[in-house]
Amino acid sequence: MAKIRRRGQTGQAKNYVTRSQAVKKLQISLPDFRKLCIWKGIYPREPRNKRKVTKSVTASTTFYYTKDIQYLLHEPLLAKFREQKVLEKKISKALGRGDNSDAARWERNAARPEATGKPRYTLNHVIRERYPTFIDAVRDLDDCLSMLFLFANLPSTSAVPAKMIARCERLCLEFQHYLIVSNNLRKSFLSIKGIYYQANIQGEDVLWLVPYKFNQRIVGDVDFRIMGTFVEFYMTLLSFVNYRLFTSIGIKYPPKFDQLKDEQGAELGAFSLEGVNIATDGDEMKAITNGESQHGPDPKVQAAVDKIVKQLKADNAKGEKSTEVAEAADEEEGEQASDSIDKFEPVAPGGDVLPQPTQGSGNVSQLFDKFTVYLSRETPRQPLEFLLRAFGCRRIGWDSVLGEGSFTADESDPSITHQIVDRPVVQAVNGTEDNGEDNQTSQKIAQNQRYPGRIYVQPQWVWDCVNNEELESPELYAPGAGLPPHLSPFVKTANGQYDPTLPLDAQETEAEALDSKMEDDAENANDEEQEQSDEDVANDMDVDSANDDESEVSEVDAEEFGGVSDDDVEEDEEEAAILQRQREVEAELSGKSVKSKSADAKTKSKLEQKKVLEKKAREEAEDLERAKGMLSKKKRKLFEQMQYSNKKKSTEDTMLRAKRRKLEKEQKKARATLA
Amino acid sequence: MAPTLPEKKRKAREPEPESDDEFANVVFDGVLSQSGDEFDDLSDEEDKEDDDDDESGNEGSESDEEEEDALLSDDIPSDVDGEEEIRKLLKNVEIEIDEPGVDPKREEEDPDKNYTVETDANGNERYVYEEIDPVYDSDDSDAQGPVNTIGDIPLSFYDTYPHIGYDINGKKIMRPAAGDALQNLLDSIEIPKGWTGLTDVNTGNPLNLTQEELELVRRVQMGLSTDDLHDPYPEMVEYFTSKEEKMPLSAAPEPKRRFLPSKHEAKQVMKLVRAIREGRILPYKPPEEREREEQEKEEVHFDLWQNEEAQEPNPMHIPAPKLPPPGYDMSYNPPAEYLPSKEEREAWEALDPEEREKDYLPQKYGALRKVPAWDTLVNDRFERCMDLYLAPRVRKNRLNIDPNSLLPKLPSPSELKPFPTVAQTIFRGHDGRVRSVAIDPTGLAVASGGDDGTVRVWELLTGRQVWSVKLSSDEAVNAVRWRPSKDSFILAAATGEDIFLMVPTFASVTPTLDQASRDMLSAGFGYATSGQKQAAPAGKEPPAKWARPGTKLEDEGVLIRITVRSTVKVISWHRRGDHFTTVSPSGQRSSVAIHTLSKHLTQIPFRKLSGLAQTAAFHPSRPLFFVATQRTIRCYDLQKLELIKVIQPGAKWISSFDIHPGGDNLIAGSYDKRLLWHDLDLSNRPYKTMRFHGEAIRTVRFHKGGLPLFADASDDGTLQIFHGKVPSDQLENPTIVPVKILKGHKVVSKLGVLDMDWHPKEPWCVSAGADGTIRLWM
To answer: Hey, which family's this protein in (chain A) (predicted)?
Structure first.
């Protein structure tokens, strides 16, 4: 006799457990379970058939793999949680009894991470488990960085202890230091949500979001305990990643942190990096600090000296010179033995051509090398400083309002080559200084306090230079100028997708192009007519209104051309006929008859082209229909799904193109009217 | 001090006060001398008071003086003789209380009295104090008084002398005043009981206090508890006797363990030692230092991935998908075309936040300084966190392929041509449905049979009816088929249980051809008579009767009538034209019959058939025979007489099938709307299933003249033409392309096109419809 099989004892039912079962099995509280899941990276699974999995009558929503939960059973953290629970119990009991001294003693042992920002356990082993290799960790760094950068900018509350924030900030700054030294930052993007950065660490692209420096508003239900659990994990992760990154480029970790400078708002400048071995020490220092403060080994002394240095410009200049010499030496060395990839040229013909990574990151990393940049006080200092440093700029000055650690706080410093401003231009009495050349020689503009011999740009210039990997012309970014659009460097345009960088003609479909041309023609005709009629003495209101009507009709036409059906064509023909008739009538009214014919001929040829196109489209559609008929049902569905998403994309693209066409037309018109 | 006080009071009356520890180191000289005087000047009140004042001044503290003044002036306004005693008493108490404070004050007042300043050997100042003269008759408790040196002789010896002996200096020790005298004096003064010497302020009478009240006053003054019962110094109760017993109660010898180190203690100590070694017990440190140390300890930095080794990722683990990178429309300064129009904005705002496709609207800020903080950044992050740990992850195989690659590579339309596209000719004449249609091997004529019981022959191109015969008045002609060879012009038609073989005669048929056909048909009669003679003795009813149909029909050209046991639905000729098979689905055992024309012989090949036979056909080149039952098509070898394979199209009810002229492929149509292509070499399952018809498929047919075409006819009134190319290469799969749907036939009582046939050479076909027409498509 076959064994009786009960429901819920074999198959899927054994593979899954509900959340409450899991909690029961682990004998921990739900918050602890949540923590454990977050740290160990265990997430719910979706069973194929929920009904087969549930043993109870009520529908459970969250299922975990039984194996996952078994794996959690061996977790050392579980023991820690239990210890903590026991301790808490002891304390509460002692307090109940009135043994205050005991309670105080135990309280000292109890972890109060929400108050102190540090627990009694470490997550090292969890990180090693989750990321067996370093590159695994780097791959998962996106969320980590976004989270820590966000927390570094949060106000401290009871849920977010100040220590945690400070630690986040420190880790983030250390990471930024690594990027600055290693020149691994690739792209950055100013979005409405914040600033995106992309770095390439050991071949992995890491993308993260840094909020703008404002007080973050916290709306709605945000459970900071959950976020805190994540942050705890991420902090540990980033500290290990930082260690590895720093040591990989030969810098000691942790870098020296100057509390005093940090309190003065030096941020990046509060750290001083040291090489692991003394020989490279000097070089490393040079790479990070400002030109003036690089020779001082002791930051405190340096801070004192800085004040004096600032007063004495001569010293300043000297310091710079010496750095330049050092840099030159560096560059020479780089040429002699570079780590860069060599170019392989085929010697004999016949071999395959292998794709090679493009050389260029070396040059890009020194994009702002030669510049001394001054940040006006209305610009966001932190991102600009980071970005400029990461792309080779060594001398960045800013207003003392923006914090400590600047190369110079004096705006009138003659060594400044670029100044980044973000304030509206107050028009001088007799000045039109939209022009870049004017900018540089604009001594007459007193209100804006322009210094001669320096280039004034808006902050976007830095970002666009970085993303395009070349120095953009600063005229476009002059203060007060209408900025060119800031484009995301992360978009990879697929074939046929709308690309705002290309001209419209290059990407619109034939039908669209034809449409737009016809519209143009119609409008031109309108204009011409209008002009003529303006000239005409017998100009009437009737004519104008007729013209208006006509243009409306043509617009309607244009819309209908979008369709592909046979009926449309016929209608089009009819419409064309009507149009022609109307034109004739108008011509009669306005007393001219020659022009309409030529225009008609033109439109006729266009219409014919259009018809041909439509026919082609129809044939293609028919072919597609036939081919689809040959697919199996499954494949057909798949195909239709694909078509659906593609179609959605293409409609979006056509909308964008249409909008752009309209805009361009408006611009043209505006220009024409101006001229 | 408190316990001694009552005694003190008593002693104040006595001449010699008892010594007390408290006063041991205090110099009392002034006081004592004064007390001596007091006894003398008892009577002199004013003097006494002045003296008192002086004394107190001499003794020091001004505060004492004031207090005393206050006391004297307030409490004792008028002096009575006897009251001196009480004042004395009170005063003594005062003095005794304030004694400790006396010393420094006195030194201040007369600094030069008790020392002289000299210069010593070094020339420094030196204070030389006077010798203190211990007055032996003082009541100093410490000084034992003058030590009498008279030795061990009775004092009575000195009774007659004023002195009682000699002191250590040889001076006479005078006899002290006899106690009796003083006592007598005191006794002589009678004090009323409870007399205080004070006056009641309210009544003016002398205030009498009882002893208890006096005690109370004293206690209050001393700052003691007013309760007499409270004993601040109870007698000690010893827990253990302080006396050592000479004889202990137990005589047991002291156990050894008393002399050995304790194991338990050793254990405890070891426990502590271990804890200290392991760092569980730490030396005490102030909290700040501890905190700092902890912080240092926490920031332990090391390379976590020092000896990393790549692990195979768990196949069940699905890494969290990354967030998509921002697009152009998320820029703070996007291209103008990305900005939403007013309608788009309104539509977006009208939507529920959860239903929105994007959680942001593109927005343009002219300058970086105008960009505000993103409102929901924390929420976004939180959502992401929730997704990371709470969202079930499912691996979805995103096909990252071009959808067009899914589409089969179809031959270009020019390659597909020619195929029939339009209805060229419509043949009208049949009354009722046309059941069957066939084009003759020469391609000139079309034969058709219908519900009206007639068989008609039409000229193909013109549509003109050239020949017709009525075979039956009540039964329909179910099938008409031409003999597939050009040397004859023979048509087979089935009505009911009869099969007629006929030679239509009309203008285009040459007399020689006509004659050859007639000869071919009649040739069998001779053979049949002899053959049947042999078969008759078997005693069985022959499967079919071959006979002449009668003169009337014979005149029309119908030459042979074969009668079988049940209604014949299908006729199918062998390629050589000598055999043909008929199928009568209702015929049970004898449903399939094979007829031999030259011998006028009918055979029933199957004793038993699983399922109802639907149709049957000969293989175009090899000696194989196919029979279709409802579900399967069976293939038999006619030479070996065995079943070769069973083809399972998977259809529920096969209506018809046809074999590709090449012989390796087969198409089958079914009543459940399916058209199935079988590659016979590949599998017995269909290679392609086509379901393009809305109704049952009645007929399927390959083009036999070398064109890669096949078609099916369906009850939905359409014919579908397919391009079906069988490649010469065995490895390639046949390409099947639907090319045309021929519409034209009307659907009459749910029946559309009942039969169709291809032209032997041209890409033309004819179809027989339930609407009574035959159409030629070309």
So the answer is: Belongs to the pescadillo family.
CA distance B667 to B665: 7
Q: To the nearest 5 percent, what fractions of chain B are helix, strand and coil?
A: 30, 25, 50
Q: What is the number of domains present in chain A?
A: 4
Chain B stretch 309-368, residues whose beta carbon is closer than 8 A to a beta carbon of chain A: 309-311, 316-317, 319-320, 322-323, 325-328, 330-338, 341, 360, 362-363, 365-368
Count other C-beta atoms under 10 Å from residue B575's C-beta. Answer: 14
Q: How far apart are CA B219 and CA B213, in angstroms?
A: 10
Distance (Å, whole) CA A382 – CA A188:
13
**Cβ within 8 Å of residue A658, ≥6 positions away:** A512
CB atoms within 10 A of CB B406: 17
Residue B538, Cβ neighbours under 10 Å: how many?
8
The boundaries of the domain holding residue A609 are: 504-674
Query: Does residue B68 sit in the same domain as residue B201?
Result: no
Check B331 against A635: CB less than 8 A apart.
no
B659 φ, ψ (degrees, to nearest 5): -105, 135
The 10s digit of each residue's pLDDT in B529-563 is: 555 544 444 556 778 888 888 888 888 888 888 98
Written as six digits, the tokens of A400 are 């003392």
Helix (H) or strand (E) holding B572: strand B570-573
Q: Does the residue A226 lie in any domain? A: yes
Identity of residue B299: E
Give the residue with greater pLDDT, B120 vs B100.
Answer: B120
The reply to whether the predicted model has a pTM over 0.95 is no
Q: What is the pLDDT of residues B659-713, one digit of tens each?
A: 998 888 899 999 988 889 988 888 888 888 888 888 899 999 999 888 888 999 9
CB–CB contact B308 A217 (8 Å): no
The C-alpha atoms of residue A450 and residue B778 are separated, in whole angstroms, by: 87
Query: Cβ neighbours of residue A593 under 8 Å, at least 6 residues apart?
Result: A584, A587
Range of the domain at B53: 5-145
The two structure tokens encoding residue A95: 């307090």
Based on the structure, what is the number of domains in chain B?
A: 3
Question: Is residue B369 domain-resident?
Answer: no
* Same domain assignment for residues A61 and A134: no
Tell me, yes or no, whether B460 lies in a domain: yes
Interface touch B368/A460, C-beta < 8 Å: yes
Co-location of A550 and A624 in the same domain: yes
Chain A residues in contact with B325 by the CB 8 A cut-off are: 196, 198, 207, 488, 490-491
Give the CATH number of the domain where residue A449 resides. 3.40.50.10190
Q: How far apart are CA A264 and CA A262, in angstroms?
A: 5
- Grouping H, G, I as helix, E, B as strand and the rest as coil, residue B245 is coil
Query: What's the distance, CA B764 to chain centroid?
Result: 67
The phi and psi torsions of B571 (rounded to 5 degrees) equal: -120, 140
Q: The tokens of A200 are what?
A: 């390439």
| Distance separating the N- and C-terminal Cα atoms of chain B | 147
Helix or strand holding residue A456 (H, E):
strand A455-457
**Model confidence over A592-619: pLDDT tens digits?**
554 545 567 777 888 888 888 888 888 8
B485, two tokens: 């060879």
Can you say how many angstroms the Cα of residue A350 is from the centroid of all Cα atoms in its chain?
Answer: 43
Between chain A and chain B, the number of residue pairs with CB atoms below 8 A apart is 240
On whether both A533 and A436 belong to a single domain, the answer is no
Instruction: Enumerate the β-bridge partners of residue B601.
Output: B596
In the chain, the amino acid numbered A565 is S
Looking at the partner chain, which of B308, B382, B408 has a beta carbon nearest the beta carbon of A222? B382
Do the beta carbons of residue A137 and residue A127 sit within 8 Å?
yes
* Least Cα separation, residue A539 to chain B (angstroms): 37
In a domain, A497, yes or no: no
Final residue before a domain boundary, out of A491, A521, A555: A491
Query: Mean of the pLDDT values across residues B508-528?
Result: 81
